[in-house]
């Protein structure tokens, strides 16, 4: 894990502890490696090769490090997104979490339990009851109805037929397919089939949902509908989710935090706002270059100190209000707005500060003179 990513992860975990957002991580991953090739187990412990690039490592050892020294926590109730280009290691990483792919080295815990040391029975319970996977390939059984596909996981668990079909019917309705329970997968659209896959994962009532690029094969409009479905389900249930994607807009839309991977390593970990506002390096900067900053950055980052005469004047905005929404409020009122937290004015945003965010100027580095500082364009 890079120093930048490690520092970000440490600071983020500290903040979560301070704000009481968790009592402990759902997944805790430390120094995780997955190496493919001859004598792969020797690579993580060999300081002579761990720092090599992918090409150099292949040339010297014949091995490929799909996941390299990755560390992070997934907190209860959050949507944790892992994103990167093809070959970055993100899909390998999510499969390591339930040992669908065996890690080469490192530690991996699920709610405090050591996943690496789990026997076959415990691992089977983890996959069947506690963590459900939604794949890009729907994997539906073509000869079974929608209801029977959704109930399949419960059938594997040995749940009685009447009970599992009742549960399946509830999940079919939850994902918006009510009335389609008797249809076969071939009679459904791609988006509807993916909803069946989502309902099947939900039916076993898992603690965590793992999504491996589930919407990448869907048409843009259907994909957006499925993203809305995930957002709605998370809002209603607060279920912990780990979501894999190569699409930055999808990551920004869904994620509470994002781990951005390159060549098997996490190069930056943070909230969407942190990644867009403060990219860790040129690789991340290229990723976020075309992101509309005002749709990701909040007024907490854009605000300046309030003058004495501004403490009680102007419309009040919450600190997490997006700059895009604040621009509309300032435009309508024709005056600056107060940023209010717990009944106290903590800053002010005006048209100059808001436009600075849009223009790519770093308003977070205000040294007290009220003037934004220019940063590298993103």
Automatic annotation (TrEMBL):
- Say if the entry is tagged with keyword Transmembrane: no
Lineage: superkingdom: Bacteria
Q: Does the keyword Protease apply?
A: no
Q: Which Gene3D superfamilies match?
A: P-loop containing nucleotide triphosphate hydrolases (3.40.50.300)
Locate the region Disordered.
1-23
Q: Where's the ABC transporter domain?
A: 52-288
Q: Where is the composition biased (Polar residues)?
A: 1-13
Q: GO molecular function terms here? A: ATP binding
**Keywords, sorted A to Z:** ATP-binding, Nucleotide-binding, Transport
CDD domains associated with the record: ABC_Pro_Gly_Betaine
Family (UniProt): Belongs to the ABC transporter superfamily.
Q: What is this protein called?
A: Glycine betaine/L-proline ABC transporter ATP-binding protein
């Amino acid at each position: 894990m890079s120093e930048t990513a490690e520092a970000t992860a440490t600071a983020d975990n500290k903040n979560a502890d301070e704000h009481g957002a968790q009592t402990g991580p759902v997944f805790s991953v430390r120094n995780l490696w997955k190496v493919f090739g001859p004598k792969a187990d020797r690579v993580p412990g060999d300081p002579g090769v761990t720092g090599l690039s992918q090409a150099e490592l292949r040339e010297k050892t014949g091995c490929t490090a799909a996941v390299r020294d990755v560390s992070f926590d997934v907190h209860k109730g959050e949507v944790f997104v892992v994103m990167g280009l093809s070959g970055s290691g993100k899909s390998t990483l999510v499969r390591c979490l339930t040992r669908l792919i065996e890690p080469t080295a490192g530690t991996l815990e699920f709610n405090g339990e050591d996943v690496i040391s789990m026997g076959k029975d415990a691992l089977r319970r983890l996959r069947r009851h506690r963590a459900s996977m939604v794949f890009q390939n729907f994997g539906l059984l073509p000869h079974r109805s929608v209801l029977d596909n959704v109930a399949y996981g419960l059938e594997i668990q040995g749940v009685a037929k009447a009970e599992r079909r009742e549960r399946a019917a509830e999940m079919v309705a939850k994902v918006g397919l009510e009335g389609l329970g008797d249809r076969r997968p071939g009679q459904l659209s791609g988006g509807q089939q993916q909803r069946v896959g989502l309902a099947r994962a939900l039916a076993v009532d898992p603690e965590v949902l793992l999504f491996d690029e589930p919407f990448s094969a869907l048409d843009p409009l259907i994909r957006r509908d499925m993203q809305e479905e995930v957002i709605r389900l998370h809002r209603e249930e607060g279920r912990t989710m780990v979501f894999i994607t190569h699409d930055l807009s999808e990551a920004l839309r869904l994620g509470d935090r994002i781990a951005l991977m390159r060549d098997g390593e996490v190069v930056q970990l943070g909230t969407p706002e942190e990644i867009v506002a403060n990219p860790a390096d040129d690789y991340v900067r290229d990723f976020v270059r075309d992101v509309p900053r005002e749709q990701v950055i909040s007024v907490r980052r854009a605000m300046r100190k309030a003058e004495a005469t501004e403490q009680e004047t102007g419309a009040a905005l919450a600190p997490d209000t997006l700059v895009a929404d604040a621009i509309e409020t300032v435009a309508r009122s024709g005056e600056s707005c107060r940023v209010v937290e717990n009944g106290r004015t903590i800053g002010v945003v005006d048209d100059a500060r808001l436009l600075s965010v849009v223009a790519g100027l770093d308003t977070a580095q205000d040294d007290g003179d009220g003037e934004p500082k220019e940063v590298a364009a993103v």
